[in-house]
Amino acid sequence: MNKPFGEDDKAHLLLVEDDCGVYRFLLPALSAHGYRVTHARTLFQAREAKSCDMVILDLGLPDGQGEAFITHLRHYSDIPILILSARQDEEGKVHCLQLGADDYLMKPFGLQELLARIQAALRRAAKMHMRDHQYQVADVLINRVTGVISKSGKPVHCTPIEHALLMQLASQPGRIFTHAQLLAAVWGNEYIQDTHYLRIHIGRLRAKIEDQPAMPRIVLTELGLGYLLA
Fold it and tell me: 147 vs 67, 190, 198, 208, CA distance in Å?
């Protein structure tokens, strides 16, 4: 289901949604904004769908939970997955992100916010395909091949922990990495409860790459969930 996508292409979205009120609203609305949309009402139909550029996924489906489709898709594809759900519990959101979802939008939602999130996800995907070894925001450049980090053309010297955190975040810019994911990736699974380690090192990292560490523009916080690169 994964294929390169350029910003000038007509994006193909897979909408996995069984609520007739939602899909009857979204199908014409997304089509009117230039998207090609394939609609699936069940997990089975979603798994049978052909290649697409992005998935918009409901969690409660007639033949199972949307989380199962996230796991299925992430075995072979890194296309963006946006969750649309009425579930508001933080634990459920964190679980979806840990499985590999990129974003989470609660119902009821506004069309303009949904469109903005779709556009942002597709832009990130296009940039990752074009330059998946390098990430730049403002005057900070991160090269994931060489491991070099620079700010305004000058090398930034990070500790091994800071460097590992930044490289993990840079592996998928714009995606929220939960506290547990970052702790497991950098320190190991036995440290996934030690969020104070993470806060300390994120603070030190921001002091080195942000113009105003107290008002970060590069390493952003998703309250209660984790961190992401802008």
Answer: 33, 26, 20, 16
- Please tell me whether the overall predicted TM-score, pTM, comes out greater than 0.90 for this model: no
Range of the domain at 121: 12-130
Q: Tell me which amino acid residue 97 is.
A: L
What's the CA gap between 226 and 68, in Å, rounded? 22
Task: List, in sequence order, the alpha helices (H) in 75-221.
Answer: 90-99, 111-130, 160-170, 179-186, 195-209
Copy the structure tokens of residue 44: 């089975």
Return d(Cα 141, Cα 1) in angstroms, integer. Answer: 30
- Tens-place pLDDT, residues 43-71: 999 999 888 999 999 999 999 999 999 99
For residue 125, what pLDDT is reported? 74
Q: Are residues 181 and 168 in the same domain?
A: yes
Q: How far apart are CA 186 and CA 163, in angstroms?
A: 10
Cis peptide before 108 (omega within 30 of 0): yes
Give the pLDDT of residue 131: 54
> What CA–CA distance (Å, rounded) separates 19 from 68?
18
In angstroms, the CA 118 to CA 81 distance is 9
CA dist 201 and 148 (Å) reads 18
Longest dimension (CA), the chain: 55
Write down which residue in 70, 95, 130 finishes a domain.
Answer: 130
Give residue 36's Cα distance to chain centre.
21
Q: Chain-centre distance of CA 89, in angstroms?
A: 19
In a domain, 7, yes or no: no
* Pairwise CA distance, residues 118 & 96, whole Å: 17
